[in-house]
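LOG
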Amino acid sequence: MSDWKNVRADDVPNRTTSSDFSFLHNQRLQPGIRVDLSEDSSPLDCFRALFDDEVCDLLITSINDFATYTVSKNTPLLQHSRLGKLTSTDRSELFKLLSVLTTMGVDS
């Protein structure tokens, strides 16, 4: 039995949160995401404009929920299973992972 289910567009609630970005629909203007950044904005400012606290919390919750699900599906654990040593992730650990992934993608 699969955990997947069909979802219709009508079933998804309309959300308006701080991470919802406004998109322009005017052909005279440049399309894209509109965030409050200036010429003096740092790369960290740009990153935080896309990965705000709400997005990070959603990622952390999803990662921890998937870890709990994976452990529960593989119970009882074998004696030397790495799943028995899993701990919940946090914002600090998420930022470390994202910084490594970003650094790996930088073309020097």
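LOG (cont.) second protein
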Amino acid sequence: MPLETVILIIQLPVQNVKQKLIAWMAHHARKTYLNIHVRTNLEELDEESAVMIVDYKMRILPQSACETETEFFGKCDWSFYSVLVYTKNMEQNRLDVQVFDH
């Protein structure tokens, strides 16, 4: 096998790993930024404020065993979310969390 072919075979997996590593680093940077932002907002809560976090859970596509092509591509879906509502109990100096699933 020529050396050029061996180099190409090795470079393809390396490029794939490089792309995945860059995606992970970007995710980690976003997560760190958001965690700092949420923590700062929670620390600034008073008795008249709240922090709401909406988190996408899943999407369910209704299906039947005998769908036509038109039915399959034209169907609607349901999205599920969780909403976390943080408030501060000033008397006990603690956070209260309520969870709402939609």
